[in-house]
Amino acid sequence: MKNFYFMPALVLAFFLMGCTFWDEGESVSFTLPGEGLWVIHGACSGKTFSIEEEGPEVVLFIGKNEPCALLASRKNRLEIYGAISPFTTVLDLETAWPAEVFYSLTAGSTDSSERTARQIQFFNWGRLIEECRDYEGNLWALDKEHAMKAIASGKFKKSDLKLQD
Fold first, then answer.
1. Angle (nearest 5°) at CA 126 between 120 and 127
2. If I label 100, which of 16, 24, 121, 149 is the partner at 20 to 30 A Cα–Cα?
3. Confidence label for 8 from pLDDT (cuts 50, 70 and 90)
4. 99-134 as b/e: b if 16+ CB within 10 A
5. Residue 102 belongs to what H/E stretch?
């Protein structure tokens, strides 16, 4: 008789857990560097997008544990701020270059380059952000094309971060 009550309770428990714990996405709040109108370009789940938002934050619904890159700038300003979730959600100047690499890889990949899409998803973006801190103030002089090719091939190493010739 115990098993008669136990089985429906077990099925109900799995159903409820599936509804609440295994959502396909999550809301992520990105903090912009100030208030005002921002032009934002993003890359999430293999797609790119562009929006305009009022600061100081923007909330996006993205795939759970999927990396998502944002690039933001004020209209008519040259400074670009970036972030790559889940490693950071605060847009800053130091993360702009890695976020630009992420965005460019996503924008350049097509359905036929499934390998590149997998590399983007599983690449250690947090490590790239940390390695780029060594080039503070000189990030935009790094060879982006060389780094993108290495990441897309799955053979990226620290020595692939080098200044343009």
1. 100
2. 24
3. very low
4. bbbbbbbbeebeeeeeebbebbeebebeebbeebee
5. helix 96-108
